[in-house]
Amino acid sequence: MNDLMTFSKINIEPAERSKIHEIDFNNLVFGRKFSDHMFVMEYEHGEWNEPVIKPYGPIEVTPALNTLHYGQAIFEGMKAFYVDENTINIFRPDVHHERLNNSARRMDIPETDYDIFITALEELMKLDHQFVPKQFGTSLYIRPFIFASDDLLAARSSTKFSYYIITSPVGTYYSEGFAPVSLTTTDEYVRAVSGGTGEAKTAGNYAASFLPAKKAVQDGYTQVLWLDATEHKYIEEVGTMNIHFLIGDTLVTPELTGSILPGVTRRSVTALAVEWGYNVEERRISIDEVFKASENGELKEVFGSGTAAVISPVGLIHHKGSTINIGTGKIGDFAKRLFDEITGIQYGKLEDPYGWIHSVEI
Ligand SMILES: Cc1ncc(COP(=O)(O)O)c(C=O)c1O
Questions:
Q1: Domain-located, residue 362
Q2: What is the pLDDT of residue 1?
Q3: Which residues share a beta bridge with 161?
Q4: Which atom of ligand 1 is nearest to the CA of 99?
């Protein structure tokens, strides 16, 4: 691999015409519109080549592209926030990059250097700062991804890879207040198995979850609550978020067993709960324990955590014909406190004693 640490600047081909006028900042649809520029770096002959930032646009691939057939592809999902006319805050880029490299190792994709990653993000923020929406609750979604780019129908690791970062302005998740989500388990499908790819952010994990997710919606639930693949007993996570249970004054979060995606928001939630003096347990938690805690009146709150919504209150869980209702149809006090603290830090309204923010001066 190149000595990537030596790159301090990335070559930039600026867009000739900005697409900023195409963005309706009052009606932002997640992942539909993209900023003017994208970061690109190609890997071949055993090393990453010089990176470049160029105008966002279509890429040409051949029908034999490895990724299209075998799915050797990984990605990240993270956000940047408008603070003031001179400052954009990126939330925990170091942890997102660490996870990108963890995913890379599992999927036999070459790792990338943090120096390049953070420089790319800084340059993209500077070039496309107009695309960062200003209203509280809105943000610039950042999507780094790496995919196999051999043009060869061979079911083995690619020798070429393409690394991109694209960004997209996104709206408030909670424009109409916090609507609690409803979850259902499924005994027909599993998301990830021990020794599989569950803890990697890789394309196939998502592809495999779409059908069960669609069925859950058809049955009237928002998303699937995944249970472990071996015993169908222990709670793992939800479609694109981790899950947490406030039982009495203990925050219980399913432990990372290898089949759960280690969420960056999850990590922030447990860190804050420790800081605030709650008992924090990361351990296996069965669906039966959650139903029992509900019956005993000890289940105070259930909520998901993820980059998209930060905190999503869960109002109902269905499992094998039984249903429990949680809370009063509103976000719980603890979940609200977490939401306020995390978003406060993200938008630069609260101090960041944890070093979670990477500020970019634009
Ligand atoms: C499967 C899955 N679990 C959990 C999460 C939450 O992770 P994060 O907080 O890093 O967004 C995500 C979202 O990225 C996800 O896709």
A1: no
A2: 42
A3: 43, 148
A4: 10
Coil, helix or strand at residue 52: strand
- Report CA-CA distances (Å) from 3 to 7, 8, 117, 159: 8, 12, 14, 19
C-beta of 77 in contact with ligand 1 (< 6 A): yes
Which whole number is the average pLDDT over 47-58? 98
Ligand 1 pocket residue status of 301, Cβ below 6 Å: no
**pLDDT single digits (tens) 65-118:** 999 999 999 999 999 999 999 999 999 999 999 999 999 999 999 999 999 999
Whether the pTM exceeds 0.85: the reply is yes
CATH code of the domain in which 285 resides: 3.20.10.10
The reported pLDDT for the residue numbered 9 is 82
Residues 197 and 339 grouped into a single domain: yes
Distance 263 CA to ligand 1 centre (A): 5
Residues 12 and 157 in one domain: yes
Q: How far is the CA of 239 from the centre of ligand 1 (A)?
A: 8
Which residue minimizes the CA distance to atom 16 of ligand 1? 240
Is there an atom of ligand 1 within 6 Å of 142 CB? no
Q: How many structural domains compose the chain?
A: 2
Tell me what the pLDDT averaged over the chain comes to.
96
**201 contacts 241 by C-beta, under 8 angstroms:** no
Query: Of 133, 152, 172, which marks where a domain is finished?
Result: 172
**Beta strands 299-306 and 279-283: pairing type?**
unpaired
Q: What is the CATH number of the domain that holds 103?
A: 3.30.470.10
Contacts of 183 (CB under 8 A, 6+ apart): 216, 221, 222, 223, 224, 225, 238, 314, 316, 317, 318
Q: Which residue's CA lies nearest to atom 12 of ligand 1? A: 240
Dihedral over Cα of 108, 113, 116, 119: its sign: positive
Q: Which domain holds residue 276?
A: 181-345
pLDDT, one tens digit per residue, over 108-152 is 999 999 999 999 999 999 999 999 999 999 999 999 999 999 999
Specify the ligand 1 atom closest to the Cα of 261: 3
